[in-house]
Write a structure and sequence with these properties.
Blueprint lengths: L8 E10 L5 H12 L7 E8 L7 E5 L10 E6 L6 H14 L2 E9 L23 E3 L2 E3 L11 E2 H6 L13 H4 L4 E5 L4 E4 H15 L3 E7 L6 H6 L4 E6 L11 H10 L5 H14 L7 E7 L3 H18 L3 H13 L10 E3 H11 L3 H17 E7 L10 E3 L13 H4 L3 H11 L3
Parallel strand pairs: 1-2, 1-5, 5-11, 6-8, 11-12
Antiparallel strand pairs: 2-3, 3-4, 6-7, 9-10, 12-13, 13-15, 14-16
Helix pairs in contact: 2-5, 7-8, 9-12, 9-14, 10-11, 11-12
Length: about 425
């Protein structure tokens, strides 16, 4: 039942669990974790969960502490397609209408692939026949699996790393793959692509009369300049990971406990809290990253990256500087295969600086650092495999430039894609 305006809370948390895939049972685990804190007169904790299977209903919850999950159900919608932008729009509209608050955190919970979802369609890790996954210490068989199948670490399931030659959504690959996808739905053979996500959140912000305070992405590889630039006008802050997320995902109990203790947190403070609590929930060897970014600063950062691209193009003709750039790319912090074409932006600038002495390059990298410092509110990492992660990654392919890359808002507003084409051409690729 809708609450009255007088009962407006400090925060409404909306978690969009796209679980109609091999993450189905992992969603149940996370809902239970959210319930350890639950809603109050200051905070509403909402979730919409689409479960696996053609006959599984999508349920909306207002999560409470000390109740059964079934008792928290507010609406049952029947089977939905989480890849349909109208379904996401309807959920967010329902949340802000019925649970008004000073601030809103929307979390997209599912697979993630940074800006480039093409690799996700070369494997079958999302299908209901995939192995069971491991979530927060629990081996949980997804619907349609057998108990004898070896459990698949959720980080692998989330990033789409285990793959075969079979395309999962063969009927939609050519038609639907645009730039970057999230919220994959096996039954509908659909997902939210980058363009759809931007459009639906733009519509939501118009209804709200302002931007969403925080857009959280409990998914892999999403903390990228390209991703953030695409959503720069729909949210004030965004929180995500440069690296693939481990199976545990976000620690909802820790995050909500911190918020419940201080429900008047500002959006910036909650964004930083999500980062700190995420990192605190993992061990040193888990190789995790997490960042909070102020999206209004993405335009200046993109301008600075474009300036760096122009400067780099001018030095490619010189063998020594070209060799230094090749060495920088070989040494830079990069992320999980097959997404090792993503590398840390600031680590790349440091390595370029070390290898190339040209004044124009030094000036350009300094501008990128300055702009990145204004954009990155908080960042951190744990583990030797990610210890040069500084908050935002960028696409820097080693062999071939994806033809999809030119369709991004980021590439339309910067020269980075032109640099990549020139760089790869200089290698004879």
């Amino acid at each position: 039942m809708p609450v009255k305006a007088a009962e407006q809370r400090n925060w409404t948390i909306m978690v969009y669990l796209a679980g109609d895939n091999n993450l189905d049972s992992a969603g149940v685990v996370d809902l239970k974790e959210m319930k350890t804190v639950g809603s109050s007169d200051r905070i509403a904790v909402l979730a919409q969960f689409d479960r696996a299977g053609s006959k599984a209903a999508t349920v909306r919850y207002c999560l409470e502490k000390g109740t059964t999950l079934a008792k928290d159900a507010v609406q049952t919608l029947g089977e939905t397609n989480t890849g349909d932008p109208n379904v996401l729009e309807d959920f967010v509209t329902w949340g802000i209408t019925n649970y008004p608050a000073d601030h809103y955190l929307l979390v997209l919970w599912n697979h993630g692939a940074g800006w480039d979802d093409a690799n996700l369609f070369q494997g079958d890790v999302f299908s209901g026949s995939a192995p069971p996954v491991v979530r927060k210490g629990q081996a949980i068989a997804t619907r349609g699996t057998t108990a004898t199948v070896k459990a698949l670490p959720l980080a692998q399931a989330r990033a789409g790393i285990a793959r075969t030659r079979r395309a999962l959504f063969s009927s939609t690959v050519a038609a639907a793959v645009k730039q970057r996808g999230i919220a994959y739905d096996d039954q509908a053979q659909d997902y939210l692509d980058n363009v759809e996500l931007k459009k639906v959140l733009t519509k939501v912000t118009k209804k709200l009369g302002r931007t969403i305070d925080i857009l959280g992405m409990d998914a892999c590889l999403m903390s990228m300049a390209e991703v953030y630039y695409q959503i720069r006008n729909v949210a004030e802050y965004s929180v995500g990971s440069e690296e693939s997320e481990p199976g545990e995902g976000w620690p909802y109990d820790r995050i909500l406990t911190a918020l419940a203790a201080k429900p008047d947190m500002s959006p910036e403070e909650l964004s930083k809290t999500i980062v700190s609590q995420y990192l605190a929930s993992y061990k040193v060897g888990d190789n995790v990253t997490q960042s909070a970014v102020k999206l209004a600063e993405l335009k200046p950062l993109t301008t600075a990256i474009s300036g760096l691209a122009k400067a780099l193009i001018t030095v490619l003709a010189t063998a020594t500087t070209r060799s230094a750039l090749i060495n920088a790319r070989a040494q830079v912090q990069e992320y999980s295969r097959p997404y090792d074409d993503y590398c840390d932006l600031l680590d790349l600038c440091d390595l370029i600086d070390k290898g190339i002495s040209a004044a124009a390059i030094k000036t350009a990298t300094a501008k990128v650092r300055l702009a990145a410092a204004a954009a990155i509110m908080a960042s951190g990492c744990k583990g030797s495999a990610v210890d040069n992660s500084r908050g935002i990654s960028i696409y820097f392919p080693k062999r071939k430039l994806s033809p999809l890359y030119k369709t991004l808002d980021f590439t339309k507003q910067s020269k980075w894609d032109e640099f990549l084409m020139a760089y790869l051409a200089s290698l004879g690729l």
